[in-house]
Specification:
It is a single chain. The protein is mainly beta and about 130 residues long. The chain has a single domain, classed as Jelly Rolls, CATH 2.60.120. It has 1 helix and 12 strands; from the N terminus they run ββββββββββββα. Strands 1-9-6-11-4 form a 5-stranded antiparallel beta sheet, with no helix packed on it. A 5-stranded antiparallel beta sheet has the order 8-7-10-5-12. β7 and β8 form a beta hairpin. This is FdtA/QdtA family cupin domain-containing protein. InterPro entries: QdtA_cupin_dom, RmlC-like_jellyroll, RmlC_Cupin_sf. It holds the Pfam family FdtA. It comes from Pseudomonas fontis.
Length: about 130
């Protein structure tokens, strides 16, 4: 089973432009409790480097691009997010990293719950110990 789970985004539009549709409990597999976005990531800076015990997220570059690395403790895959119609599901217990942000990157993230520091696994060795138990 692939770690890269891209969801279908309905893209509507005409000569004026595009409207990309994300809907909770439809093409987003959860009720959205939190929305945040990353901007102005400096050259050479990578982000992420953590997993969540319970939180699920959907990530989309609404502008620019970045490279996502997904790791479930057994396999590692990567994908370039480079289109607002390409939305990546980051499930529970997936170590994720974001690299190679373009200057104009705006990475939008929809989360299944509110911020909770207790849900984070920030140490890679701790993540591997938990992930390889399953």
């Amino acid at each position: 089973m692939s770690l890269i789970n891209l969801v279908d985004v309905q893209v509507l539009g005409d000569e004026r432009g595009h409207l990309n549709v994300l809907e909770a409990n439809r093409n987003i597999p959860f009720a959205i409790q939190r929305v945040y976005y990353l901007t102005a990531t400096q050259p050479g800076v990578s982000r992420g480097f953590h997993a969540h015990k319970e939180l699920e997220q959907m990530a989309v570059c609404v502008a620019g691009q970045c490279r996502m690395i997904m790791n479930d403790g057994h396999s590692v895959e990567e994908v370039m997010l480079d289109s607002p119609a390409k939305v990546l599901h980051v499930g529970k217990m997936i170590w994720h990293e974001m690299h190679d942000f373009s200057d104009d990157c705006v990475l939008l993230v929809l989360a299944s719950d509110y911020y909770d520091e207790q849900d984070y696994i920030r140490n890679y060795e701790d993540f591997l110990a938990l992930a390889t138990r399953n």
